[in-house]
Amino acid sequence: QVQLVESGGGLVQTGDSLRLSCAASGRTTSRYVMGWFRQAPGKEREFVAAISWSRVTIDYADSVKGRFTSTTDNAKNTVYLHMNSLKPEDTADYYCAASLIASRNKDEYIFWGRGTRVTVSS
After folding, report:
1. pLDDT tens figures, 39-58
2. How many CB atoms sit inside 10 A of residue 9's CB?
3. Burial of 107 by CB count in 10 Å (0-12 exposed, 13-18 middle, 19+ buried)?
4. Average pLDDT, the chain
């Protein structure tokens, strides 16, 4: 019903910036809140950010507040995660997901992309 494809990951140095993209396709994508999650090796998938297509709802994990910004381009059905001042602890596979409600809980998200890898060297 909804397909999500992340892109934009890569290898960067501490302090660098990176922009991740999540292209959404399928039927009635506007019904969903978009979330960003990340998962480091050996760790659980954790919440990063969430944004509604209307941009009324925007939420960030404390660990990324002030550094990461999520935006939408509704004409392109794409959401972005602008990551600034990257730290080694930001290293993870980043996933976008779609939920019917705004939530930090990964279990609320119905559709997931396959992820894009971000590596921040120290």
Report:
1. 999 999 999 999 999 888 99
2. 19
3. exposed
4. 96
